[in-house]
Amino acid sequence: MRPDTYSEGDRGWRDTATWYALLPLRLFLGVTFIYAGLDKLTDSAFMKDAGAGSIGDLMNSARGSSAIPALVDLALRNPVGFGYAIALGELAVGIGTLIGLLARLAALGGALISLSLWLTVSWASDPYYYGNDLAYLIAWLPLVLAGASVLSVDAALRARRIRRAGGRR
User: Fold this and answer.
1) What pLDDT sits at residue 166?
2) ∠ at Cα 51 (50, 53), nearest 5°?
3) 4 has pLDDT over 70
4) pLDDT of amino acid 169
5) Does an H or E element contain 162, and which?
6) 62-65 — which CB contacts under 8 Å span 24+ positions?
7) Among 6-10, 23-27, 160-164, which is the least confidently predicted range?
8) Which helix (H) or strand (E) holds 84?
9) How far is CA 13 from CA 27, 76, 155, in A?
10) Does 166 or 33 have the greater pLDDT score?
11) Pairwise CA distance, residues 25 & 97, whole Å
């Protein structure tokens, strides 16, 4: 139920809980992806072609067990550029998700990052549930479908459009 379809006094605790149900997931994924992006950007060892803890070594070690080795080969053409793309992508996805700006698009970006990491880096995890990228991929899907319904820039912009239209949708 949308909060703009009934008055505040009509909302029961179940309706309120339903409306806020995805907020913890949005907060967790937003903060986690911001942290992941910042962690990569501030780790001097990570943003190198080779060496312990580098993106180059990570991608080289994942190549043999990847579901899509061609994707790893593409990343290995410029591992540092790929590392920056992933880090900045995670940062953009995290910020968009956390503040709820273009939330469905941000969630789609998060799902695509998680999918690419699952198919490359964590594909060989055995059993499969040891690799966290698949769980992140699945966690993004409700936000791709529902977006950010409350406490978000998207919700504020939607409410503003409705007010300007005189309450009509």
Assistant:
1) 83
2) 110
3) no
4) 62
5) helix 153-164
6) 62/120, 62/121, 62/123, 62/124, 65/123, 65/124
7) 6-10
8) helix 79-99
9) 21, 52, 20
10) 33
11) 10
Structure tokens given for 5: 């379809």
Identify the residue whose tokens are 């920056």. 84
Distance CA 26, CA 147 (A): 9
pLDDT digits (tens, 9 = 90+) for 44-85: 999 999 999 999 999 999 999 999 999 999 999 999 999 999
Q: Are 76 and 60 in contact (CB under 8 A)?
A: yes
Any idea which residue has 């998060």 for tokens? 110
Contact present, 76 and 63 (Cβ < 8 Å):
yes
CB count within 10 Å of CB 110 equals: 28
In degrees, to the nearest 5, what angle opens at C-alpha 64 toward C-alphas 138 and 117?
Answer: 25
**pLDDT at res. 98:** 97
Q: Return the DSSP state at 54.
A: -
- Residue that is written with structure tokens 């309120």 in the block: 16
